[in-house]
Amino acid sequence: MLNTENLVVRFGGVFALGGVDFAMTKGEVHCLVGPNGAGKSTFFKVVTGQIAPTSGRVSLGGSDITGEGSAQIVRRGIGIKMQTPQLFDDMTVEDTIWLGAYRGRGKAHARRRTAELLDELRLGEVARAEVGKLAHGLRQRVEIASVLAGDPELILLDEPAAGMSDADVDFLAALILRLRGQHSFLVVEHDMRFIRMIADRVTVFHNGKIFLEGRSDAVLSDQGVKDIYLGKGKAHA
Q1: Which of 56, 70, 123, 138 could join 49 via S-S bond, C-beta 3.0 to 4.6 A?
Q2: What is the rounded distance in angstroms from the CA atom of residue 21 to the CA atom of residue 135?
Q3: Is 85 exposed, middle or buried (0-12, 13-18, 19+ CB in 10 A)?
Q4: CA dist., res. 174 & res. 196, Å (int)
Q5: 78-81 and 63-64: which strand pairing?
Q6: What is the rounded average pLDDT for all residues in the chain?
């Protein structure tokens, strides 16, 4: 589904990514982890079209999307949720989801899909509330609903559990597990409890490269990975 080949990002003389080969398959939940400065966020920004790579290739379903902007990538069927909610605070929850569902599909579809998502994400009680007045966990939930409204094949999530209560994290994990198979998920995250709940595969970044990749239980129990997080490995600037 998503592949990168020898992906390099250089800022001046500093390599943020030093030649990353990555692949994920359809229907999986794949998490990217690593200490601060390891390269995972740079990788995510390249894949989501926020920055262009210095060299290398990004492909989606065999199509080259290298250097395309975020808007172009969304039109290809990728849903993107940044760490900070990208929402209009003065819009209602219902209208926000409706707008995501409407694009190119018509009003009847938008009404039906909005009703489904209000129910699935338990947002019915705040449907007419302004997004800007919601608590953080609910705002995150609204943005995820807005992304889902476009029925993307692949969903990219940047630290979706950040700042959430345990109850909100549990709800989000259960939602992703229900949707796995209908959608594929690529998730950048620090919350190890959340990762253990959702991940099929985990990729660990370190010094701008992939340190280890595999099934979540094996990767997260690896001593080398533990050493990196404890600061025993040399961190990438």
Answers
A1: 70
A2: 39
A3: middle
A4: 12
A5: unpaired
A6: 90
Place of tokens 């990729």: 203
- Distance, CA of 24 to chain centre: 13
Which residue matches tokens 């701008």? Answer: 208
In this structure, whether the domain defined by 1-77+153-237 belongs to CATH 3.40.50.300 is answered with yes
Q: What is the pLDDT of residues 111-149, one digit of tens each?
A: 999 999 999 999 999 999 999 999 988 999 999 999 999
Strand partners of residue 18? 8
The tokens of 130 are what?
Answer: 């302004």
> What residue ranges in 52-206 does DSSP mark as E strands?
55-60, 63-64, 78-81, 154-158, 184-188, 201-206
Quick one: pLDDT at residue 56?
96
Q: Strand 209-215's sheet: what is its strand order?
A: 78-81, 154-158, 184-188, 29-33, 201-206, 209-215
180 close to 27: Cβ distance less than 8 angstroms? yes
Structure tokens at 35: 């200490």
* Three-class DSSP category at 15: strand
- Cα–Cα distance for residue pair 130/139, rounded to 1 Å: 10
* Residue that has been written with the tokens 């929402």 in this structure: 87
The model's pTM: 0.89
- Pick from 4, 183, 213: nearest CA to 78: 183
**Domain-by-domain residue ranges, the chain?**
1-77+153-237, 83-151
Q: Tell me the C-alpha to C-alpha distance, in Å, between residue 7 and each of 17, 38, 116, 209, 215.
A: 7, 14, 39, 9, 23
